[in-house]
């Protein structure tokens, strides 16, 4: 099959990101109309196998070679071949989890140390799992977002509340100064507590954008067609992932992807004709995987790049690594927890280290 270049980064390691379909009929027409697939009409010269060698003499040609062009695929052909390239959500997560297990080994001692000025001597993981308020969210979504916040901190900063990145992002959740000015409520950008408060504010903004009149119809259609009345699964396994993706991609870009996906499957029989008839059945988080992998091929939003897709997979991989590393023995070792579950007196200033010369965690 031919490759289809896109005007976005093609960096994800999944086969779906490396192997491109050339979509025919209406889908190809839409891509060419926007210029996203125009490069597919040209074929680059074939490089020599060994550039260091002199090319062998070629027999003179009496006429130029015809330009090779990719074979256009109909929609039916596209979906006939799509299942062999589809990667289930959990498979992709486990592909990344090994990377985060290594990061966990180097960061978990920092994440599980006591936070400053916390009389209960809670760890960073415990603090992040409990402090989000999320008053505007359904309890199912709120519970998932709280479970994922420690993973977000691991992905963003290895739980280092004092980290300042080269791009200017700061703190355990890596807020950029502009975003902090809008959501930080004049707090300390290096404060763990203030970053959690700002995250509450940002999540509220994302939620209101996705629930707006612009994007709500797409969400309703996806819920009706793919989740068949199972609202809890829709909220936990799809909507929560969309909210998390907005941290990296922006709610507007994710909203465009939602609209494209909803238009791709307007009726229940579209699911049968395009997926089930070719042996592909999706449910739960695999619906999100289906949406994002189709987006990489159909380009519903040019700004929704591979890193935005991988961001959510990385969060769940980090969550899996955290859950695997959360052992009672390690907790007792790092926290000095007594067998009855109580805590001895903790000198927080001694327990909380200072990584890479960054400022120490501040919760005051």
Topology:
Layout: H1 15-18, H2 25-34, H3 75-81, H4 89-111, H5 124-130, H6 139-157, H7 177-183, H8 192-210, H9 216-226, H10 231-249, H11 251-264, H12 268-274, H13 285-298, H14 306-325, H15 328-335, H16 348-351
Features:
364 residues, mainly alpha, 2 domains, 16 helices, 53% helix, 0% strand, globular, disordered N terminus, disordered C terminus
Give a description of the structure.
This protein has 364 residues and is mostly helical. The protein folds into two domains: 1-47 and 64-84, no CATH class; 86-357, no CATH class. It contains 16 helices and no strands. It is globular. The N and C termini lie far apart (58 Å). The model is unreliable at 1-67 and 328-364 (pLDDT under 50).
Rg, rounded, reads 24 Å
Give the count of helical stretches: 16
Structural class call reads mainly alpha
- The average pLDDT score comes to 74
> What's the main sheet like?
none
Low-pLDDT parts are 1-67, 328-364
SSE order: HHHHHHHHHHHHHHHH
Q: How many strand units?
A: 0
Provide the β-strand percentage band: under 5%
First-to-last CA distance: 58 Å
**Number of structurally distinct domains:** 2
Helix content: 40-55%
User: What best-fitting shape do the alpha-carbon axes yield?
Assistant: globular
């Amino acid at each position: 099959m031919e490759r289809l270049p896109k005007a976005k980064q093609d960096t994800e390691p999944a086969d779906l990101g490396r192997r491109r379909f050339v979509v025919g009929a209406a889908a190809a027409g839409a891509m060419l109309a926007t210029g996203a697939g125009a490069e597919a009409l040209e074929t680059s010269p074939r490089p020599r196998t060994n550039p260091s060698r002199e090319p062998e003499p070629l027999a003179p040609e009496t006429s130029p070679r015809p330009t090779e062009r990719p074979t256009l695929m109909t929609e039916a052909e596209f979906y006939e071949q799509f299942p062999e390239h589809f990667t289930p959500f959990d498979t992709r997560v486990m592909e990344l989890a090994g990377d985060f297990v290594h990061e966990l080994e180097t960061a978990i001692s920092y994440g599980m140390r006591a936070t400053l000025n916390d009389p209960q001597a809670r760890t960073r993981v415990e603090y992040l799992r409990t402090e989000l308020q999320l008053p505007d969210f359904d309890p199912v979504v709120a519970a998932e977002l709280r479970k994922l916040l420690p993973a977000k901190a691991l992905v963003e900063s290895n739980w280092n509340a004092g980290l300042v990145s080269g791009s200017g992002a700061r703190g355990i959740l890596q807020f950029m100064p502009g975003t902090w000015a809008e959501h930080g409520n004049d707090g300390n950008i290096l404060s763990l507590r203030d970053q959690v408060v700002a995250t509450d504010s940002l999540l509220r903004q994302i939620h209101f954008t996705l629930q707006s009149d612009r994007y709500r119809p797409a969400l309703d259609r996806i819920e009706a067609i793919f989740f068949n009345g199972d609202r809890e699964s829709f909220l936990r396994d799809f909507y929560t992932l969309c909210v998390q993706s907005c941290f990296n991609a922006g709610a507007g870009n994710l909203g465009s992807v939602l609209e494209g996906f909803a238009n791709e499957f307007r009726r229940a029989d579209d699911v049968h004709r395009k997926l089930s008839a070719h042996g592909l059945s999706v449910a739960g988080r695999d619906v999100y995987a289906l949406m994002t992998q189709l987006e990489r091929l159909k380009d519903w939003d040019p700004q929704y790049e591979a890193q935005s897709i991988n961001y959510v997979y990385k969060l769940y991989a980090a969550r899996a690594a955290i859950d695997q590393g959360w052992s009672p023995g390690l907790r007792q070792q790092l926290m000095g927890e007594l067998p009855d579950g109580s805590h001895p007196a903790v000198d927080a200033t001694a327990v909380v280290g200072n990584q890479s010369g960054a400022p120490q965690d501040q919760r005051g």
